[in-house]
Protein: Peptidoglycan D,D-transpeptidase FtsI
Organism: Pseudidiomarina fusca
Amino acid sequence: MALTSKGNRRVLKKAQPHLSTGRFYFALLIVVLVFGSLVARAAYIQVVEPERLIFEGDRRSLRADTTTVQRGSIMDRNGRELAVSVPVQTVWADPQRVHEGHGLDNRERWLALAEVFRTDADSLMAKVADPNRRFVYLERKVTPGVAEFVRQLGIPGVYLKTESRRFYPAGEIAAHVVGFTDIDGLGIEGLEAIYNQVLTGVPGERLYRKDAAGRVVEEISVTAAQQPQQLTLSIDQRLQALAYAEVKKAVRYHQATSGSAVILDITTGEVLAMVNSPSYNPNNRADAQPHRLRNRAITDAYEPGSTVKPLAVIAALEHGVIKPNQVIDTSPGWLRIGGRRVSDPKNRGPLTITEILETSSNVGTAKIALQTGIDNMLDTYAAVGFGNDTGVAMLGESFGVLQGRQRWSDFEVATLSYGYGLTVTTLQLAQMYAIIGNGGVRYPLTIQRREGTPVGEQVISKETADTVLAMLESVVANGSGERARVRGYRVAGKTGTTRKAVAGGYGDEYVTLFAGVAPVSNPRLAVVVTINEPSGDEYYGSQVSAPVFAEIVGDALRMLNITPDHLQDTQLKAAGWVDVPEFLRARSN
């Protein structure tokens, strides 16, 4: 038994190494598999999919600081601000920090916050209800008083940050020209939209790396900010305010639907003023209705009526059809053309070309047009810019309608000569009169300040332009434009009154216009006034638009310090000067 027991122990001792070797290899296999999987995982992360590892590392160490850039200013030609960006505070919240700091426990503070924001407390608190969110706006671009109130409330997780807000010092006066931006500072109307990239600029950025202790260990890159450009307009804020006040007053007085006025610098093609009524306040657009946002001076096209009669005369003179001193018989005061009737208010008999414009004779103008021919008429109309853009490059500009069809009836040719059968904008009509005042030279119009005199195109001979300008001066001095006279200055211009087209013909609503040039001795300004749908007994251009023209032109010429050229109708008295006859009469009384 002892031997047997000793033999078993020997067997067991010999079998022991076999079991240890198996375990060793099994353990070795496990170790190899573990390390192999770790190496494979590391290789996968670093070779096959390294982006996530880099992202996680950068997320914990990379930081970026941005340099904010204010939006560029919009200035008038004299440096007055029409649009400027000002720093304001925006209220935002970190919902996670709000919950960590038990910021929702004190409802009274949220009620106070909702009151200054003019909103409901429950909806305000709902914005921070999700603790997993890290950012939410509570109120954008608040006033300094509201920002200070939020700071004093001290709600955990509610913070202030500086943003930029657009402010328009001129308000409704220049709203249609300048336009406005949205809440994020992007232009969406007017020049703000057209020149958005120019005015925006590019923020700067500093990229660096921090360690766990918050120390800067690496400066990676620094990108300098690209400053925005300043936009300087051709608009003169003084003339803009003057024209707006007069148009607004006329629209209100005549209970009209709308009104527009444009002032051009004849010598440069610059737009000095462009106004519309009704307008809107770009600083507070809560109640800005769509019809108030339209820049009617360039978007709304009307049949111009008698304001284009000078073009019929120009076309005839340019093609040698008539002479400046020619007499045309308008008897018996009406003319039948193709079964249709063209008429004047009364029989005026034989009239000179100047008298045809003075009395605004449809019969005389129609006879001139029929002699001139439709092709010559259309060429002249197109030469002054009708049916095309003015070059001003503004949002929503209409080209108007100047038809170019092959066949025209004689009646259509006749009506075209006194402003029916085509449409033009207030700006296009101003361009036409600027060409006449500039000796027949056409400049592309601009809304930006122009340095020097541009290269123009001679579209009408100087002789013809000067001849018609003299005729238009007689219209104001002796004819239908009498109420457009400006004391101390020689003025040339033409009235216009058109009935608005409706389905099947023309209705009972009118558009009244006056277009003119001043001073005649050295033309500087071309001005057009359009009053749309006046109510009441006065609805002619001579009654409605001409007086507005006179007020605008008179004040504008004096404001620009332009020398009077017609002192015969003024009485200038030097200091200490005494009118002796008047003095003696006063003493005798």
Observations:
- Residues 572-589 have pLDDT under 50 and may be disordered.
- DSSP finds 20 helices and 23 strands in the chain.
